[in-house]
Amino acid sequence: MSGARALASAAAAALLAGAAWLDPAPAEAAAPRGVGPRLLGPIASLAASAQWVRSHVARRAGRPELALARAELALRLDPQAPEGWSSLVSHLAFDRASPTREPDPARRLAFLRAALDTAARGEARASHPEELAYLRGFVLAFAAGPQADLEWPGGRRALWAEAAEHFARAAAGGHPHAAELEAAARAELAAGASPPR
User: Fold this and answer.
1) Does a structural domain hold residue 36?
2) Which of 11, 49, 117, 183 has the highest count of CB atoms within 10 angstroms of its CB?
3) DSSP string, the chain
4) Residues of the chain with pLDDT under 50
């Protein structure tokens, strides 16, 4: 082994050992983490931030698939950051599923489902799951609004009912605005939540 390779190997081993030593959370209390965060240790969050910047650059360059791939990498690097999950969910639900951007209701529904699936993954992994539960409710309430033209099983009533459930979970987790929106969703249900025609 050459001197440069030996030095690089020693530096990598020291970095890995240092990352384990610097991690202040006890191993049994820490949430399950992937290989990337374990290898990068304390700089995983910084690496995720760099991927978010690259994702936004790709999005602005009109390369949505590359932007999504970079966002997913950022989430794998720092799965406990609720801001990352919220950013991707918001992009999918309010940008990609927007009627002004996507005229096809079937494609908008696919983006909405992708947003909700992403929020569910985030709720299971993020350090503040109540934020993602709240966002899931908000996405569903938005989809149930006056512009609702999506073929959701059970229609607007089901959208409002699911939104209320997510808001209730967020409120139980301590989200400061969730109880108010849960009450609003339940009021829509009590009013019938009939489709606008």
Assistant:
1) no
2) 49
3) --HHHHHHHHHHHHHHHHHHHH--S-TTTSPP--HHHHHHGGGHHHHHHHHHHHHHHHHHTT-HHHHHHHHHHHHHH-TT-HHHHHHHHHIIIIIIT-TTT---HHHHHHHHHHHHHHHHHHHHHSS-HHHHHHHHHHHHHHHTSTT-----TTHHHHHHHHHHHHHHHHHHTT-TTHHHHHHHHHHHHHTT-PPP-
4) 1-32, 195-197
The pTM is what? 0.77
Contact 130, 104 (CB under 8 A): no
**Domain span at residue 195?**
105-197
The reply to whether 165 falls in a domain is yes
Place of tokens 């599923």: 97
Full DSSP string of 74-86: HHHH-TT-HHHHH
* C-alpha 106, offset from chain centre: 22
**pLDDT tens-digit readout, 44-74:** 889 999 999 999 999 999 999 999 999 999 9
Which has the closest alpha carbon to 97: 63, 64, 143, 137? Answer: 143
